[in-house]
Predict the 3D structure of the following.
Amino acid sequence: MNEITQQVWGFTPESPTGTAGGGEPVILYTMTNANGATVQLTNYGASIVGITVPDRMGKMADVVLGYGKWQSYIADGPAMGKSVGRYANRIAKGKFTLDGKEYRLAVNNGPNHLHGGPTGFANRLWEGRVEGDRVVFGYHSADGEEGYPEALYVEACFDWDDDNKLEITYYARLDGDTSDPTIVNLTNHVYFNLNGHDSGSVLGHSLIVKAAQYLPTDETAIPLAAPQAPATVEGTPMDFRTPTTLGARIDEPFQQLIWGKGYDHCWVIDPGAADGTVAELCSEESGRFVKVSTTQPGIQIYTGNWLGGCPESKTEGYFYSDRDGVAMECQAFPDSPNRGDFPSVVLRPGETYEQHIAYEFGTR
């Protein structure tokens, strides 16, 4: 049985004219399980602020990157711990065609659209509520917001159990009377460092990804056309089918790693892995591990290659450097709206989008 507490973390700024918006409470939720392990969340961006779990000696530490002030989450580059959408990851050239109609989106990542646009879902204040043992965030996205068609209502539900497992369930449905579809791809952008969020590089962590294929990209991080993508991981630095440290091959002269300044790619989860663990991150130093499971077809592994320069962390005076955390973002494939060969991301009237992501922590 979780204990869930809430505190006001701050208030959104009043508008410059004082006529509309602002003054809304930003809430920090703390979920504590029977073991004393905690998850902290906020309604700004439906974000994970902290996860505190024991190491092999029982010592507690916060193992996800984050900030000490809620204002630092406003439009931060890393999208630290946030729920991103309406479409996570990239859409080529910021445009796609749906049922014969072309839609144009904001271009906010080189020549492409990323994570739903400059504001997206990650930089919105969501409605928050406690339902029994879970925290639920809801957001109404207007028709045309960031260029996306149709109004959409989304929910992010967070469950934290006594096995130290955090499950995130994303729901979405078209909001209002419409006969037209939209596209949806939601994920959480949490970064892990299993030695503690302020302990430096994660390149010593070992990773397993149950994926025989990945999606090689062009230099702007858009997946290559078939048959170049998907591609086999065999014989490349992208092969994590057996435990391999993140730093073992990250600096090899492999074009995909050079373009990304490290790992920032989507792996095609093996179909047989969908019913169980799809990835596992482990720190030999602390003994902590986190197992990832999901209903999504892909997992984006991002080694925090551009973390330097982001706001002060939760530890006063500590600023993250590149590769201080790794994100494991379960999601649909990048640029799926433009790829008929990828699993569909279309949501039509009467349908409910539902995807699950779980992070289960333990020690060995």
The first strand starts at residue 3 and ends at 11.
